[in-house]
Each structure stands twice: as structure tokens, then as C-alpha cells.
Amino acid sequence: MIxxxxxHKAFDTPVLSGIDxxxxxxxxxxxxxxxxxxxxxxxxxxNGLLRPDRGDVLIDGESVYHSSRRTVxxxxxxxxxxxxxxxxxxxxxxxxxxxxxLPDHEPGRPPTREELRLICEALEAVNLDPxxxxxxxxxxxxxxMRKRVGLARAIxxxxxxxxxxxxxxxxxxVNAAVVSLLITDIRERLHVTSVIVTHDIEGAxxxxxxxxxxxxxKLRFVGTPDAFRASQDPVVRAFADRSAAxxxxxxxxxxx
Amino acid sequence: xxxxxxxxxxxxxxxxxxxAGVGAxxxxxxxxxxAGRIASVTLRGHVSVxxxxxxxxxxxxxxxxxxxxxxxxxxxxxxxxxxxxxxxQVPLYVLGSVVASSVVxxxxxxxxxxxxxxxxGARTTAELGTMxxxxxxxxxxxxxxxxxxxxxxxxxxxxxxSTPLLVGLANxxxxxxxLVASQHTLGLGPESFLYGARLYxxxxxxxxxxxxxxxxxxxxxxxxxxxGFQTRGGAAGVGEATTSSVVLMIMAVLTLDALFPxxxxx
Lengths: 256, 266
Fold this sequence. Notes:
The complex is a heterodimer.
Chain A lengths: L1 E9 L3 E10 L4 E5 L6 H8 L7 E6 L2 E2 L5 H10 E4 L11 H6 L13 H13 L4 H4 L9 H13 L5 E5 L7 H18 L2 E5 L3 H7 L2 E6 L2 E6 L1 H6 L3 H7 L3 H12 L1
Parallel strand pairs in A: 3-8, 3-9, 6-7, 7-8
Antiparallel strand pairs in A: 1-2, 1-4, 4-5, 9-10
Helix pairs in contact in A: 4-6, 10-11
Chain B lengths: L1 H42 L5 H11 L4 H23 L7 H40 L2 H7 L4 H40 L3 H10 L3 H27 L4 H32 L1
Helix pairs in contact in B: 1-6, 1-8, 2-6, 3-4, 3-6, 4-6, 4-7, 4-8, 4-9, 6-8, 8-9
């Protein structure tokens, strides 16, 4: 279970202003909202990549910010993170990248037979052929494949929680659909708790148990996809109904 | 009017100086913290020996040709210029002493440090900076790995081991080049050159040279890693961080070099 408690974060201007959100074990929650409203910032506070100015994040009841270093390291190992542009280590091959996701692997050491089995399993789980790509460098892969290798790296250590930062951004519709299906598949197979930050509202409504709409650093809506679709809130409507008129209306509302 | 403009100019200068001071203080604090964290992870045994060996190969072994050429040229030039000044003025065997002292006390360590600033330091900042702006450092954190232990500590340990060894090599090559050059251009035999070299030689000089190398071997990786970790803002940010890092490393090498004689030679 993830619990965001009164999260505040400002850079030059306030980005998050008192976010309270609870994600139950095994649940899939998508965070949507206009660009620059702090969705990725909120996600990065989950495992300590960005420290909030105020507030705390609890993972299964343990604080990410007020626990011992050892506890925080243990919490981090529970969490897999899929980055927007995959963030693969570009000087390492695919297998070396995945080795970094194995907690007991010493950098530079070739993988053991067991580690290799886990790596192959993770690659197969994201529909990649280990034989074909295991020795490739990230630069030799397509955008969709890099995203899937990033996902494989996040799951190879068998996390309990998966955080996705814009998992389908920059992908063509076919690859975006493939990644959305993979998220559902991995969630069912590994029984992970998932938090997804995305602009892909249709995908989010299809794969999530709940959707949270972040606007101006505050949560404007939290509820099921059905409730999201039925909401009369004009900002939620603008997101639910992706017509050009809604987009213009939303842009105008944002300007006001 | 003129007083007003002058006042504004002075205030602007003071503000710029204050900003530079704050920036320098922030970097110094950041580097001190990084050094503390490197010491902590090293003492707890959280540094991969393989990675240290890999960095020693890159920092030390792969730098040998460039350090060799640079120090040979330094020995050669010192010998030539010394010969030009001494001919007809002082006994030529004194040249051996001049070349030995110049190379061992100054040129060997400093030129090796400059080679490492360009070859290793700049690359380290660019590499870590690129990793920072492409979220690869965040990825390490998220995978439960400490970037200080994975990236910075092996580089610092490798620098501390490789640099004194490279300085020792630079001293040898520089002396040998000086000896050969003085024989071919001034007709000074190796015996006379070595006699001169031994005449004013102190055993402490070699240790001084290697300790200087050790100090540079700490400063260069520490600054380059710190600047890499501080990088922000895409490709332009990486370029800016690398430039600042090279400037800082050169300043650090020259400042340490200036501090060594009053601390250890007097």
C-alpha cells in the first residue's frame, strides 16, 4: 500500500500543494492532468527520487523519509520504476542493464545461471526475445523496445510496486497499445500495486482501478473510471471527452 | 551622475563576487559531502573491486602513452632551454640537476595532472552529466543502487592508485628524455648528466612528487564526479558542466601545486 500524506513540493513556484492519496495493495491508479502540474514530481516522491518539502510517503506503513537508511533501501527494492524515456544505461548491453535490477548482483560480474534465467523471464514477460536482444546496446533498439527493456529491468527484481512515468509517451498507437496491455498483464501476473502517470486518458481509463486528476498541484478528482466518465466537473469532462473543443476550453480555463 | 554610475558598477561587482563566493562555497560543501560519502561506502566495503580495476585500466593504463609523450617533451624542452642558458656560464653537468628537479618536483606531477584533467576528468563529468540529465542516475537510485558507490567511489580510488604511479612514470621518462636530449644536442655524457642529477638530489623529492600526484589523484575525480552529479538542463547543461569542471580541476591542480612548496619544502 502507498500512502501520500500532505505532499508539498515547490521549485521556483509551488508544484504540489497538499496531496493526500492512498493506493491499496494490488490496485492500479493512474494520475492524469495537464503538463506541468506535478504528476511526475508526485511519482518521484514515492521512492525518494525527489524529497517533498513537506509531508511523507508511506509504503506498507513505513515512511520513505523518516526511516533508517537500511529501511529506505529495503523499501526501494520493493519498488520498480519505469522511466519516461526508459533511462537505460547506454554504455551497457541489455543483459547488463537488467543485471542492475537484480539486488544481489555485483556490477561488472557476469550473471549466474539463475540470474540469467530471471533476465530471460523478464524479457519474455515484456514480449522480447532474449536470444535476439540480450547482447544489444540500448542505442541499437527501437523506442518501443527500449521502453519494454526498461519495463523488464523494473520487474526483474520482482517488485511489489511498479511506478510508470508516461509509459506510452513517444510511442506510435500500436506500440502504445502493446505497452498498455503489458502493464495489465504484468499487474495480473506479478500482483503488483501500480501507479501510472500518463497523458493517455483512454488507456488510463481502460487499465486502471481508479483515476486521479491533478490540477494546479492539487487533486481535482479521484475515483473509478466510470465515475470519471460520468463526472460533470468541467475540467474532468475536458479530459474525459478528448474533443478539440474540450481541449480549447481546458486551455482557456488554465489561462484564467 | 558619474558617482551614481560608479556606485552601481561597484555594487554590481560586489554582487557578482558574492554570487561567485556562494557558488564556490556550495561546490566546496558538495565536494566535501561527496568525499565523506565515498569514504563511508568504501569503508563499508560497498565498492566493486572489478569496477575499481576497470577504472584503473582506463585512468592509468590507457593514459600511459599520453603521459609518456608529454613528460618526454617536458624533459626534452627543459634540457634544451637549460643548455641554452648554461652553455659558457656554468658547468653543463648542473643541467642534470636542473632537469631532475624540474621534472620530479614540478613538471612530472603537474603535466600528468593536466593530461588526466583532459583525458579522464572531462570525460567523467560529461559521462555522469549525461547520465544525470537522461535520468540514468535516478534509475540507479530506483534500482536500490547508490550512484556514489557505483560511479564515484571506484573513480576516486582508481585516481588515488593510478596518479602517483603515472607521476613516477612521467618522472622516469622526463629524466631519460632530458638525458638523451642533452647528450645529442649539447654533448653532455650520461655520466655527467647523472652526476649533476645526484648532486642536489634529496630522497624526499621523489616522495614529494608522488604525494603531489596523490593529491591530484584525489582532486581530479572528486571535482569531475561532483560536477557530473550537479549537471542540469540537457545537452547544453552537460557542455556547461564539463567546461566548469575542467576550469575547476585546472584551478585546483594549480592551487594545490602552489600550496605544496610552503607546506612540504620549506
